[in-house]
């Protein structure tokens, strides 16, 4: 028996053991295997190790997707998490190459993956409250949301979890420096059934605007002059 003579269920099972690149390579060998690759049932779980992987054509987004993770563990994450007004020209150029990749991808998820139940975003320093709020509004079956080291997350996301995350049972906002104790407490008060983790988040120094930094610096200079 040839491989292509197996039924769809068997081929899907075989494909499930392959990584994304191997699935795509095999799908290019014949029309039958291409049909298996394009079957949404094959793509219930997706894991990406960097934003650049989102550019590739080795995966399919669809209504069968349940578990999604974009986890970027790289030294470049530190650059992404620097406040924009503090970045050098080189750092801005570095970020410009990928800063919209995850945001644009999440927009596609909102339109194509309504049955998502778990979302993990780690080291995604350029995503905003708006991106995550859209996911919460579009994927109403979401049960687990993990945001780790996503510097632009604020209490607005926590408020959206209360308002739209009716199915949520687990939320992590670890190392998100612009989340406050007040925002976390509101989630605990209004959604006590949700297991909430916020490791170091509210204890970190939040972002500040350039003018605020200037005022602090001038006040310190005056203090030093007259002391």
Automatic annotation (TrEMBL):
The keyword Hydrolase does not apply. The lineage of its organism: Eukaryota, Metazoa, Chordata, Craniata, Vertebrata. Keywords: Ubl conjugation pathway. The keyword Kinase does not apply. It holds the Pfam family F-box-like. GO terms for cellular component: cytoplasm. Residues 1-46 form the F-box domain. It comes from the Eukaryota. This is F-box domain-containing protein.
């Amino acid at each position: 028996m040839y491989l292509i003579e197996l039924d769809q269920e068997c081929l899907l099972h075989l494909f499930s053991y392959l990584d994304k690149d191997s699935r795509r390579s095999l799908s290019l060998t014949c029309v039958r295997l291409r049909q298996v690759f394009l079957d949404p049932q094959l793509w219930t779980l997706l894991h990406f190790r960097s934003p650049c992987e989102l550019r590739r054509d080795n995966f399919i987004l669809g209504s069968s997707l349940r578990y999604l993770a974009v986890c970027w563990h790289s030294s470049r994450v530190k650059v992404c998490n620097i406040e924009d007004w503090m970045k050098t020209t080189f750092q801005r150029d570095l970020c410009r190459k990928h800063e919209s990749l995850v945001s644009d991808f999440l927009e596609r998820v909102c339109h194509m993956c309504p049955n998502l139940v778990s979302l993990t975003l780690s080291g995604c320093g350029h995503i905003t409250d708006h991106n995550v709020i859209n996911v919460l509004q579009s994927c109403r079956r979401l049960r687990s949301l993990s945001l780790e080291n996503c510097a632009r997350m604020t209490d607005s996301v926590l408020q959206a979890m209360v308002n739209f995350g009716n199915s949520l049972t687990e939320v992590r906002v670890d190392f998100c420096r612009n989340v406050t104790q007040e925002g976390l407490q509101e989630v605990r008060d209004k959604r006590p059934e949700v297991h909430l983790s916020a490791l170091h988040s509210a204890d970190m120094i939040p972002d500040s605007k350039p003018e605020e930094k200037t005022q602090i610096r001038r006040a310190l200079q005056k203090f030093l002059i007259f002391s």
